[in-house]
Prior knowledge:
Blueprint: E1 7-8, H1 12-39, H2 45-83, E2 85-86, E3 97-98, E4 100-101, H3 103-138
Antiparallel strand pairs: 1-3, 2-4
Helix pairs in contact: 2-3
Amino acid sequence: xxxxPEIQYADPEARRRALRWLVPSALVGLLLAAVLTxxxxxxxxxxxxxxxxxxxxALIVIAALMLWPLYRLWNTGRAARRTRRFxxxxxxxxxxxxVHRGDAAVLRGRLLQVLAGVMAFFVILTPLVIxxxxxxLLRPH
Length: 141
């Protein structure tokens, strides 16, 4: 009879904490989208240019805020590689999760770090590319 896999049980408080962050963040995002859409609906050229700059500023702020969870994801991968256990000891999970040890945990840790790195690259690149496009399109001819 095969051994039962080790399970790290869900932490109900971690689930509540995740929802306390997710719901307000989604509402703020919806409100921001509505405000920026309303501001961009004017016929005046000056207000359209202002709304483009405001949208770019909002994109930069959102991108900066996205770097924190990616940093946490990177550190989770690093902890999994260091301890050779995934999920790392002390990490609260929101659902029952099988525990992986050894090479399987190291692989998952590396994959988390690759994912965090690729996502951070695009989070940083996107506002830079859009800012460049805005500056080219709005420069005087």
